[in-house]
Amino acid sequence: MILRIEEIQGACSKILAAVDSNTLSPLTETLQLKTVGTNLLISVTNREYYAQVKIPINEVIPFHATVNANLFLKLISQTTTETVELTVEDTNLNVKGNGVYKLPLIYDGEQLLDIPEIVIGNPTAQFDID
After folding, report:
1. pTM of the predicted model as reported, rounded to 2 decimal places
2. What CA–CA distance (Å, rounded) separates 75 from 59?
3. What is the C-alpha radius of gyration for the chain, rounded to an integer number of angstroms?
4. pLDDT tens digits for 92-105?
5. What are the angstrom distances between the C-alpha of 5 and each of 13, 28, 83, 109?
């Protein structure tokens, strides 16, 4: 999947504030990249809150990767190329920008870790934040 750097850097700067650096749980420093339809969803959680940023993409591409949030966000913030290419190969997320970087995927046993979404049963208000 190839993304314009402005789009992914903007999304990453928004999600950075939601990354919890608490080392008590590996889930708090984990970031999930997953496509749903024509959107790339970037998600983080610490089990008390759940944050997600959507990046529209041009086509439906099956993609799922869970990596260390700080490594991925620092790498994307320092990329200076016009585009960045993300691919999953074996047990790594390959990020191609200024170079090719391999970030190890995070597994829960045999399965790729899936960040649990926090669902509110009876919301009293709903809104979108730009």
Report:
1. 0.83
2. 25
3. 15
4. 999 999 999 999 99
5. 12, 25, 5, 33
